């Protein structure tokens, strides 16, 4: 009889039973697994498989059908809940642009009430996704001098477009100024007759003084709205920092690209982006 085997991280599901990895024995080419209820001291059931490698589903050498101590019944609902918990964390890591609430909503939309009852509260599910994402982020610098060159992943958008347009790290007597915007936002800003400047202090990272935002007038359907188009982190409130940020925006907005003509045609057609 074919077994239903699912490997999710450090857990192994066999025919409705859930096992945690206990230890690998490379010299024996085997991995040993403990039933989840063994860790709760309810049962003594264990499983043995071929050595588990890099997400490959191992071959079961000893499982529930061989285990005399596995006296509790399989629980398919609990197994499905485990798969959902693993999948939302994996999705949060794979698509960092998606809000955890959206991932959780999509993953639980079609689940039965029995499976939903086995899942953590929605807030706990979202917290687990944020925790997974933090593991793959560099440590936050404690002082401005610790902030060196920005990692490439933070200089582009999720679609691979350039986002960082200026960083004053190598410029003397300016302080730190980091300016970010997409090319399309810069084109929208250039088409705007009025710019609005806004400095926000409460949401700024602790090593910076403020988040400086430039808004432009953008036509949406038949209406006009002021939308944030450029973001800058400033390390002080000095005039030279504002001047540096605005000059960087001006220079970036004046750069030409093959994308520009096509985009300006879209603006002229009143297409909402």
In short:
With 273 residues, the chain is an alpha+beta fold. It is built from 8 helices and 11 strands.
Molecular structure report:
This protein starts with a strand and ends in a 5-residue tail after the last helix. By secondary structure, it is of the alpha+beta class. Helix 2 runs antiparallel to helix 3 and helix 6 packs across helix 7. The chain contains eight helices and eleven strands. 20% of the residues are buried. A six-stranded antiparallel sheet has the order 1-2-3-4-5-6. Strands 7-8-11-10-9 form a five-stranded antiparallel sheet, with helices on one face.
Strand content: 15-25%
The major sheet is characterized as: 6 strands, antiparallel
Q: What percent of residues adopt helix (DSSP H or I)?
A: 25-40%
Specify Rg, calculated over alpha carbons: 27 Å
End-to-end gap? 55 Å
What attributes does this structure have?
five-stranded antiparallel β-sheet; six-stranded antiparallel β-sheet; disordered C terminus; 273 residues; 32% helix; alpha+beta; single chain
Topology of helices and strands:
Elements: E1 5-8, E2 11-14, E3 17-25, E4 30-35, H1 36-39, E5 46-50, E6 60-62, H2 76-94, H3 100-108, H4 113-118, H5 122-135, E7 164-167, E8 177-180, H6 183-191, E9 195-200, E10 210-220, E11 223-234, H7 239-254, H8 259-268
Antiparallel strand pairs: 1-2, 2-3, 3-4, 4-5, 5-6, 7-8, 8-11, 9-10, 10-11
Helix pairs in contact: 2-3, 2-5, 6-7
């Amino acid at each position: 009889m074919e077994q239903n085997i699912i490997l999710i991280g450090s857990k192994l599901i066999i025919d409705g039973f859930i096992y945690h990895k206990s230890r690998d024995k490379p010299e024996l080419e085997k991995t040993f697994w403990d039933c989840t209820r063994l860790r709760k001291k309810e049962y003594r059931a264990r499983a043995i498989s071929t050595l588990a490698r890099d997400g490959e589903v191992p071959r079961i050498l000893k499982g529930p059908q061989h285990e005399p101590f596995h006296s509790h019944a399989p629980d398919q609902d609990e197994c499905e809940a485990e798969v959902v918990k693993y999948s939302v964390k994996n999705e949060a890591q794979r698509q960092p642009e998606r809000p955890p609430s959206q991932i959780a909503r999509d993953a639980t939309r079609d689940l039965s009430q029995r499976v939903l009852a086995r899942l953590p509260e929605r807030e706990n599910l979202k917290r687990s996704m944020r925790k997974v994402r933090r593991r793959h982020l560099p440590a936050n610098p404690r002082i401005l001098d610790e902030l060196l060159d920005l990692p490439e992943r933070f200089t582009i958008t999720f679609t691979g477009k350039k986002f960082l347009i200026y960083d004053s790290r190598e410029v003397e007597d300016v302080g730190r100024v980091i300016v970010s915007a997409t090319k399309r936002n810069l084109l929208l800003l250039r088409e705007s007759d009025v710019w609005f400047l806004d400095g926000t202090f409460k949401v700024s990272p602790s090593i910076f003084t403020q988040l400086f935002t430039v808004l432009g007038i953008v036509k949406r359907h038949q209406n006009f709205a002021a939308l944030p188009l450029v973001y800058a982190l400033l390390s002080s409130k000095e005039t030279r920092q504002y001047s540096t940020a605005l000059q960087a925006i001006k220079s970036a907005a004046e750069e030409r690209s093959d994308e520009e003509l096509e985009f300006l045609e879209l603006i002229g057609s009143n297409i909402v982006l």
